[in-house]
Amino acid sequence: MCGIVGYIGEQEATPILVEGLKKLEYRGYDSAGVALYNDGNMDIFKIVGKLENLEGLTDKEKPKGTIGIGHTRWATHGKPSTPNSHPHTSTNGKFTVVHNGIIENYMQLKEELKAKGYEFKSETDTEVVPNLIQDNYDGDLEEAVRKTIEMLKGAYALVVLSTEEPEKLVTVREDSPLIIGLGEGEYFVASDIPAILKHTDEVYILDDGEMAVITRNGVELSTVTGNNVDKDVFKVDWDPGMAEKGGFDHFMLKEIHEQPEALRRSIAGRLNGDSVHFDNVNLTAKELEKYNKVYIIACGTAYYSGVVGKYAIEKLARIPVEVDVASEFRYREPLVDEKTLVIAVSQSGETADTLASLREARDRGAHVIAICNTVGSSIAREADDIIYLNAGPEIAVASTKAYITMLMCFYMLSIYLGKTKGLLEDDDSKKLISDLKRLPEQVEDIIENSTGTIKDLAKEYAKYEDAFYIGRLIDYAVALEGQLKLKEISYIHAEAYPAGELKHGPLALIEEGIPVVAVATQRSVIDKTLSNVKEVKARGGAVTGVVFEGEEDIEDLDYRIEIPGTSEILSAILAVVPLQLLSYYVAVQRGYDVDQPRNLAKSVTVE
Ligand code: F6R
Known about the structure:
By secondary structure, the protein is of the alpha/beta class. It has two domains: 3-243, Aminohydrolase, N-terminal nucleophile (Ntn) domain (Glutamine Phosphoribosylpyrophosphate, subunit 1, domain 1); 252-590, 3-Layer(aba) Sandwich (Rossmann fold), CATH 3.40.50. It is built from 17 helices and 26 strands. A hairpin with a 2-residue loop joins strand 15 (271-272) and strand 16. The termini are close together. The structure holds fructose -6-phosphate. Fructose -6-phosphate (F6R) binds next to helix 9 and helix 15.
């Protein structure tokens, strides 16, 4: 986790660094800091709390310098505190480092360094790095970093700045993302593209085991073992406005409103009459025959998109699907082999557990398709095939537009697999594809038509500390995502159950006024869901139903939110939108920081 930035050029570095960090705040926000080299000195400013605290500090102190590094932290080793925040400096004060990742063998290295007389001011794993660089320094910074890297175990993206060689930044990556933005006589380092997008759209994406020495004259790329690297410049096609709030109070709300556009981008060029085409997936019917199982692996919201994916693939392509949380999958000798088709799902493409699961699956011979948002991310690069979400940058910690485009990708993939296997008649796929194309506009309608009701509902639901979400079949999958959204930003304890499971225990928790959201779009089980709604009502629960327009059979609701009609299997894309809005407005009602919920960070690059 954590976000890192660096700048070298002719401009004052502080505002560029602080602004870059603001764009990375989704990666961590418990403390932040910058280091600037100026006139023989290294000036370091760090402070606990959100970026605005660092901004206040740098506005007051006005650090000078045209080369610098910065960091926004999500604590792993050592509590959030000013001493534990980055940048960290070597004992002699000459080597300064920002780090994203975890140095697994830091305890042993720390003991060895202490025995040599090195001093430590923090509880972090990172502080061993500048001290090791000091220890390894013999007049060549690049060489000292190489020697240091050889001693480290774990994951790291590092940027090093030194008073010994102050005209350069040295950066290196292993299992944590790092990009270099290429300007005219100026260069930017960052964990992610939004941090540099305002300045340039040309970047190098560093691979694991690569390092860069950056001066005002250019960027030299090499492997940590010393071989030259020749890399293509990657052209980012995002509009800088895509990473700004654009008039909305929060990124989350903006991203909910961007969903129609994100869905349009996601389907662009992929839907053709009655068939689906992906640039990077080419499975023939013969190849598909080989696979007897699909395994979906992911974390959090991406995992819940996989639960929808299971319903869609099993229904349309008739292949058995298992969905697994990546942090479980990777450690339990999964039953995966060359007959398994694995789908790894991730917005960031850097989630440590999903990446490790992907590697585990490939080692066991599986063919891996990634469904991913971040171009050039580790998961996108290491998979055999890649389906990009094309959702654009997602900044809010609570995922919305990435989730909805994950669903879209699963639906398109299910149709693709069903067609390739010869199971879907042309008329059926034509109908599904025409319905898929209508979804963006229908999402627009839901946002427009249901926001008022949801704001009222939020005022009521915000008073409670527990909430329940129920549904059957694909509605249950949507309920899972709904409860996570509520939990993570409004801190209300929320749980999702298959509606039929209530009577096996959870019903005991229903009492007067308790919020229950019933997602009820699946006709084949509508009567059964209605019975469950009645069971809840009988115990005093306040039920909100998410139903198709004109649904007459679900009655007795306290609140009713309607979604436009579509093929039943596709309902997840529509049904989730009111649930996203509900969690957003409940969190606002409770006065919480929607975009940066406590204890969470967006890109989870630690285990
Ligand atoms: C929840 C949320 C997280 C992520 C999870 C996986 O709103 O955003 O649960 O879904 O951390 O992240 P990615 O998709 O980047 O692998």
